[in-house]
Design a protein that fits this description.
The chain is α+β, with helices and mostly antiparallel strands and 452 residues long. The protein is built from eleven helices and 17 strands.
């Protein structure tokens, strides 16, 4: 009887451990803001526990969530040199108390989120750059408890408390005001163009994402210089803004959860000359309101940028344009040279089911992947060619319709033994589309580590 009870206990423990091993834990900022030293500046984090759906798991998971979150979660905050930050006042004593808790069951696909203050765990009186990791204890903390590590690491900047603090607070107030206005993408585009027309440059700059615009600009790549030029009335660095508009005609507006595209016709009459341009605005919503992060302007007869960048590129030129765009983070351009279908269907969640899906499902999945890639919502590991750094083309071979380009890439990694170079070979497979386009694009690529 005793032996049977022991076996039942072992099986029950194994079942609980197996179920808890399926718990996924993630952390993110609840409302990213500007942080200063001192515990008066609250750093709020959103913690999410979920039971992911997969083919091997269809069971509920059970977690024990303490009323005092410090007994269920742990945070490790370290400087970029690895120095740990001291615990907050009262944190150590909280670990010696066993308080009340709730028993929560999460069905497959279900999640639970709570908001906590990092100030309750660590001392934040020292400014600096930090890395934050976190652990969740499904059975609360004790000497035998098993921890689930968060699936992401957060960067935290605590700024020195200087005389510039009032300026940063003003920026926060402006941001909150823009959030409260809650303008749709088309209204933002129209207002930006009209303010530029009326020489209200400060207002025209409100909804511009300067970092994105500077990164992809062919004229200027410095954020501060871009801001200075625009505030002085020099708008030549942004397509479609070189001259004041005389009239606007909306053609289309597509709005997704985090990404939006607005297309319009803008009329201009500079120096007595009249012409019309087809403007494409790309917006995203990283801080609670829509921001313009890219603008494309075409005159009549220009190639539609939605279909291609340039039509006259040969295979090595296509690869060069593709890799340069990826290094800039300019996925709109990169995806004009790269067909992501092979990348998506080989993702773990689609590898076994892709062939059984309909063409409509394929288009939906590909569109969702492209939108997330363009708007920066994908983890680096899920992005194609995410480790491209220093590269060179070593071999080219192509016929009238098919081709291959071999690239050798070198990336430097920081290790405990110092910098280490990893050399990778990429073989890109290209195809030429039928007439009338007849353009080269990458359909897939293979990688291998180069052993020296």
């Amino acid at each position: 009887m005793v032996r049977r009870s022991i076996l039942l206990f072992i099986f029950a423990f194994a079942a609980v451990f197996s179920a808890q091993a399926e718990v996924r834990f993630s952390i993110r900022y609840h409302n990213k803001n500007i942080y200063y030293p001192g515990n008066d500046d609250e750093i709020k984090l959103k913690l999410t526990m979920s039971n992911p759906v997969n083919h091997e798991n269809s069971d509920d998971v059970t977690i024990y969530l303490a009323d005092d979150p410090r007994q269920s979660f742990g945070f490790d905050l370290r400087s970029l040199t690895g120095e740990p930050m001291p615990p907050a006042e009262g944190y150590v004593s909280s670990q010696n108390e066993r308080g009340a808790y709730r028993v929560i069951h999460l069905a497959p696909g279900q999640e639970l989120s709570i908001t906590v203050q990092l100030n309750d765990w660590v001392d934040l009186t020292k400014p600096g750059q930090y890395r934050l990791t976190s652990s969740f204890y499904p059975e609360m903390k004790d000497q035998k408890s098993i921890a689930v590590q968060a699936d992401s690491v957060l960067d935290l900047s605590v700024l020195p408390d200087t005389e510039r603090r009032w300026e940063d607070k003003l920026d926060t107030e402006v941001r909150n005001a823009l959030i409260r206005r809650d303008l749709d993408p088309w209204s933002i585009v129209r207002e930006t163009l009209e303010n530029r027309r009326d020489s209200r440059y400060n207002r025209a700059m409100l909804y511009l994402d300067f970092e994105s615009l500077a990164r992809i600009s062919r004229i200027i790549d410095d954020v501060e210089s871009l801001e200075n030029l625009l505030s002085e009335g020099s708008w030549n660095s942004i397509p479609g803004f070189e001259h004041p508009v005389t009239s606007l005609e909306l053609i289309s507006s597509q709005v997704f959860p985090r990404e939006a595209r607005v297309r319009l016709k803008a009329s201009y009459e500079p120096y007595g000359e009249s012409f019309i341009r087809d403007l494409r605005f790309y917006l995203h919503n990283p801080e609670g309101y829509w921001q313009i992060r890219r603008v494309e302007a075409l005159a009549a007869g220009d190639v539609d940028p939605a279909s291609y960048g340039r039509l006259d590129l040969n295979p090595p030129d296509v690869i060069s344009e593709l890799l340069r765009a990826i290094q800039r983070g300019d996925w709109e351009i990169a995806l004009r040279y790269y067909d992501a279908t092979d990348q998506v269907r080989n993702l773990p969640e689609y590898r076994d089911t892709w062939k059984n899906m309909s063409s409509t499902e394929h288009r939906r999945i590909l569109t969702d992947y492209r939108n997330k890639l363009i708007s920066g919502q994908l983890d680096e590991e899920r992005q194609p060619l995410h480790d491209i750094d220093t590269w060179k083309i070593t071999r080219v071979s192509y016929t009238d319709s098919e081709g291959s380009v071999t690239v050798e890439n070198t990336r430097i990694y920081d290790t405990v033994e110092g910098p280490m170079a990893q050399n990778t070979q990429y073989i890109f497979r290209l195809e030429k589309t039928p007439e009338p386009d007849e353009r080269w694009h990458v359909v897939r690529y293979d990688t291998s580590i180069i052993r020296r």
